[in-house]
Amino acid sequence: MLKIKKSYFILTILSYIFALFSGGNLPYSIFYCLLLVLIITSIYIYFVSKNLNIDVVSDKKEIIAGENNNIIIKVYNDSIFPISYMEIENSLLKRIMNKYRGDIISIKINGNKFIKKDIKIPIRGDYRLGSTTSIVSDIFGVFTWKCSYSHKETIKVYPSIYTLKSIKIKGANLREFNTKTIMQELNKGPESLETIKNIREYRIGDSYRRVNWKVTAKHGKLFVKEYESSESPRIHVFLDLRKDPLSMDKDGVREEELVEFFLSLIKYMQEKSANSQAIIIGENTEVFNISNKEHLEGLKTHMVSKYSEGRGKLPLFMKKFMYNVNKKSAVVIVTYDMSKENIDYFINLSTEGYEVTLFYLDKIPKVSDDAISHMLNKGINCYSIEEIR
Questions:
Q1: CATH C-level class of 174-194+231-388
Q2: Quick one: which of 93, 176, 277, 282 could link to 233 by a disulfide (CB 3.0–4.6 Å)?
Q3: Strands of 381-384's sheet, edge to edge?
Q4: How confident is the model at residue 251 (pLDDT cuts 50, 70, 90)?
């Protein structure tokens, strides 16, 4: 986009009119000088605009949130004129750097200039290098040429995963963390591990090995044996990623803390040989079975583009899933929403026989010591994420 300084253009027209009516050498000399500057600057802007190119590159294509990285803006001037004044601004740098206001540079004939920026991106996601806007003016400020260059390259920012110290997950003892031992005993039959507690109708997700064929034949529909404890070492880990409780988290910092802890917790369980199930509650409920490093890497990659979304109450989402989870199972909840309704539901889960462990952000204003004490008294293990990370 080309702009001409209106005051200069008007001055040139007026000088011509004045010279036309008054005559004389001086008025015409002034007009010719103004016109000459106009012609020279227009030629200058034309050649510069046709021979200027800008590229932006990143040292690393994939980084961890908070990791140092360099972005380099490369400016090439292939024209026959030097550039005495040029403003440059990149949209990505403006987005992630609070104090960034662009750069002012000058470039010699057939020269180039590289602008290196040290950055840290604190929030996961796919970041395009965006667009770079350049503004070039001639030395008289008569013409200003503005152009935008688009860059398709992206930087993939993975959520940070850190090492957790020893955490007691209720219902997940050392025996459950030893998956190989469990599977060996399961091969001998479920009764070798458990004692039969009840006979109930088949639910989606139940193992067919638990079907009681005598009762099934008698009633004409599937019935399964319910044991004192789950035959599966699976730990159900819920991440509350609904939009409502995070609506005030404008910069996404609290959400990032939840996601980082969630993945760190899954990693901790995977290192203990636990067979965990990651359940992400947002607009839809997504389930990931995690039993090896490849599964964990897949979950981490998925979380790069997974943000808080959807509305609704947490108990309503969880109830649909808990219907297929056996009693005595380890249930882990990672949330930012510690409303009274949610706390009552967590207590209800514990009362029903589920082994509940709760992780919450200490920065939530609604959380009181009395509420935490009440849940502890009801058999729920409660941890502040800030205190254990």
A1: alpha beta
A2: 176
A3: 285-290, 276-281, 235-240, 330-335, 355-360, 381-384
A4: confident
Q: Which amino acid is at 142?
A: V
Give the contacts of 221 (CB within 8 A, at least 6 positions apart).
201, 202
Angle at 309 between CA 304 and CA 313, to 5 degrees: 135
CATH of 1-158 among 1.10.10.1590, 2.40.10.220, 2.60.40.10, 3.40.50.300:
2.60.40.10
332 in Cβ contact with 235 (< 8 Å): yes
pLDDT, tens digit (0-9, with 9 covering 90-100), for 351-388: 999 999 999 987 666 677 888 899 999 999 999 998 88
Distances (CA, A) of 329 to 13, 32, 364: 86, 91, 28
- Of the listed ranges 129-143, 206-220, 253-267, the least confidently predicted one is 206-220
Would you kindly state where each structural domain of the chain is located, as residue ranges?
A: 1-158, 174-194+231-388, 197-228
Listed residue (337, 322, 324, 235) closest to 282, CA to CA: 337
What is the secondary structure of 63-118 as a DSSP string? Answer: EETT-EEEEEEEEEE-SSS-EEEEEEEEHHHHHH-TT---EEEEE-TTEEEEEEEE
Average pLDDT score over residue span 172-182 = 47
List of residues 6+ apart from 387 with CB closer than 8 A: 362
Q: What tokens were used for 184?
A: 């060996």
CA 376 from centre of chain: 32
* Region 324-341 average pLDDT: 90
